[in-house]
Specification:
- The protein is of the alpha+beta class and about 110 residues long.
- It has helices spanning about 5-10, 25-40, and strands at about 45, 50-60, 65-70, 80-85, 90-95, 100-105.
- The longest helix is centred in the first third of the chain and has 16 residues, at about 25-40.
Length: about 110
Amino acid sequence: MNIFQKPTLSISGYVVGYIKVTDQNELLDDLRNLNRGKDKKADVKAGFWLSKGLEVEITDGAFKGTKGVVESHEKLTEVHLQVNMLHQSVIVRIDPKQIKVLGEFEILEQDT
């Protein structure tokens, strides 16, 4: 969208608001990860966004290759697929054998 389209969209009544996208590639990657399971009808449910936890990679199944976040080693079965820019996530139930722990995950909020 260019700068000249924004006023036209606002007047049309189809747009409620805009979000500031600081990293378009990150946003697109997050959204693609969510879409992977849709095509394979994976079981997902609404989740809460995590600012801390463990970063994991799913090694098998519909979400193979997708990175997500789990709360702790005790909750490896619930992988949060996050859209960090929107502070939203969905939870995918995964067999812990299909998960590789990559390390600690933490997002530090910055005032913008």
